[in-house]
């Protein structure tokens, strides 16, 4: 595949009559989706938009949004993604700061503050609306002259994707289109014929996982049921009707399916659950498999890698499942991995923990360092031990939040858990946790959970506070939002408290 955009363009228009996607009861053919993308391209060209201009898209998980992204990539038009899950004022501020030549958004996102920002910046404003006579149309008066200082993506076209924002403000990372072949490789690697079964799409298009799925879909020719946002009833309905053999998503979804007591027969066609984004504790994997007979195939990736770099495969699962229990898999073909010391950055031998580095020639020629703590064994299997930059230093003792969260997840009443560090006047930092309980476990209290952790971990690992929340705050990619969790815990503690009062030993 020498030119990704050219191959995508051919795939989009290859079989126009083929049904490719369903959304809220409506089925879309490849030809329908291609028409939306073609209409947008024609509108951009008619407006005289320069080829290096970044096209800002306020993305939602809707078929027409997938269609215009595919159309833009196929024609090598640069894209910058914009979160729709923010206020109109925040979107307007982004438009003012970025000065896009073109902004594409759903009709409902063209609020007055956003439209005013487009007018201020001489931006070509385009609305998407499947309910309108013309699904792709200009907003307001045509722009006569595009501002000279519009946002450019040079020297080659690509897509700017927002990072997950689990530890702070999301940042935009640029991927040239030539790198998007990794999106297809990430989705198809190690799955064999299972790749061809129907899919249920839940990942948001604004993240790397969702975007990989959008651009790969025409090339892998996989029929998809698109969910605007994950919810159990719609997901289960699609699973019953489409009978997929392989599904994917973060561990949040299996947790929610089990907590909702979804009947095993509703998922009886599913043989494998392929996921990543955050750790899937082995105990939860066992519970999921025991209840539904679904094997979990886990992976590790990041926005910086343009997809997955480490993964289990179906064949690896058959051979090593018990022997390598808890690992996130092995390096994908074409990817080299190593572990370096956290302080000295010297390369470590197998079995020693440190920062993960990856060499991915398709992305860049040098090693890419992460702050993820891993170890790699002599067989090349990788164990993920959390984020080095998230370590909590409690009186000089380093605590990995993931280790404390894992202990909380062992408790039968806990559905999900997150641990963050809070400033402490005496100890520097202390761990604090937020948990979401299972529906039938509302009588569980904070002291009970603290005592539970105390029985499993050293005293300095026991959280100073454990806040029980109705649900954990999440980013658009369903990862737990650490900044929001910290804020919620601090609210629970009371703004007047300088330091936690519980278990500060």
From TrEMBL:
Q: Which residue intervals define the domain AMP-dependent synthetase/ligase in the entry?
A: 10-356
Looking at the record, the residues that make up the AMP-binding enzyme C-terminal domain are 404-479
Coiled-coil portions:
none
Question: What GO terms describe the biological role, i.e. biological process, of this protein?
Answer: fatty acid metabolic process
Q: What are the alphabetically sorted keywords of the record? A: Ligase
- The reply to whether Ligase figures as a keyword in the UniProt entry is yes
Record keywords: Ligase included? yes
One Pfam family name is AMP-binding
**A molecular function (GO) term:** medium-chain fatty acid-CoA ligase activity
> Entry's InterPro entries?
AMP-bd_C, AMP-bd_C_sf, AMP-dep_synth/lig_dom, ANL_N_sf
Put simply, this protein is called Acyl-CoA synthetase (AMP-forming)/AMP-acid ligase II
Organism equals: Sphingobium wenxiniae (strain DSM 21828 / CGMCC 1.7748 / JZ-1)
């Amino acid at each position: 595949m020498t030119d990704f955009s050219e191959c995508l363009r051919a795939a989009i228009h290859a079989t126009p009559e083929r049904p490719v996607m369903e959304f809220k009861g409506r089925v879309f053919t490849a030809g329908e989706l291609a028409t939306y993308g073609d209409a947008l391209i024609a509108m951009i060209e008619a407006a005289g938009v320069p080829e290096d201009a970044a096209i800002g898209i306020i993305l939602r998980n809707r078929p027409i949004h997938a269609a215009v992204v595919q159309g833009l990539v196929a024609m090598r038009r640069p894209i910058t993604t914009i979160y729709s899950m923010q206020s109109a004022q925040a979107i307007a501020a982004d438009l003012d700061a970025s000065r896009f030549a073109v902004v594409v958004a759903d009709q409902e996102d063209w609020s007055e503050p956003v439209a005013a920002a487009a007018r201020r910046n001489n931006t070509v404003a385009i609305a998407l609306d499947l309910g309108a006579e013309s699904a792709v149309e200009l907003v307001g008066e045509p722009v006569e002259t595009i501002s000279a200082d519009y946002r450019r993506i040079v020297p080659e076209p690509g897509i700017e994707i927002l990072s997950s924002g689990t530890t702070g403000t999301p940042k935009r990372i640029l991927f040239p289109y030539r790198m998007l072949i990794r999106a297809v490789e990430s989705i198809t690697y190690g799955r064999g014929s299972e790749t061809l079964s129907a899919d249920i799409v839940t990942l948001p298009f604004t993240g790397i996982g969702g975007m990989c799925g959008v651009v790969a879909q025409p090339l892998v020719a996989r029929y998809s049921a698109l969910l605007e946002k994950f919810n159990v009833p719609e997901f289960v309905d699609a699973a019953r009707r489409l009978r997929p053999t392989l599904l994917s998503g973060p561990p949040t979804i299996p947790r929610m399916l089990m907590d909702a007591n979804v009947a095993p027969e509703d998922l009886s066609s599913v043989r494998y659950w392929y996921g990543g984004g955050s750790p899937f504790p082995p105990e939860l994997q066992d519970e999921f498999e025991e209840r539904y007979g679904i094997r979990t195939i886990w992976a590790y990736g990041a926005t910086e890698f343009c997809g997955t770099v480490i993964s289990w495969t179906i064949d690896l699962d058959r051979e090593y499942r018990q022997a390598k229990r808890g690992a996130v898999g092995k390096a994908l073909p074409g990817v080299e991995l190593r572990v370096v010391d956290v302080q000295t950055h010297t390369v470590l031998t197998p079995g020693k923990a440190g920062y993960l580095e990856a060499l991915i020639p398709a992305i860049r020629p040098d090693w890419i360092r992460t702050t993820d703590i891993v170890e790699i064994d002599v067989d090349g299997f990788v164990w993920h031990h959390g984020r080095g930059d998230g370590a909590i230093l409690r009186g000089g003792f380093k605590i990995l939040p993931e280790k404390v969260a894992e202990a909380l997840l062992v408790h039968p009443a806990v559905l999900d858990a997150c641990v963050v560090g809070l400033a402490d006047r005496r100890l520097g930092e202390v761990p604090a946790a937020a948990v979401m309980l299972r529906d039938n476990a509302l009588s569980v209290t904070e002291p009970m959970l603290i005592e539970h952790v105390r029985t499993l971990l050293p005293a300095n690992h026991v959280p100073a506070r454990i806040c029980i929340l109705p649900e954990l705050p999440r980013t658009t990619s369903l990862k737990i939002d650490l900044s929001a969790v910290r804020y919620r815990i601090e609210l629970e503690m009371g703004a007047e408290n300088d330091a936690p009062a519980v278990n500060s030993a």
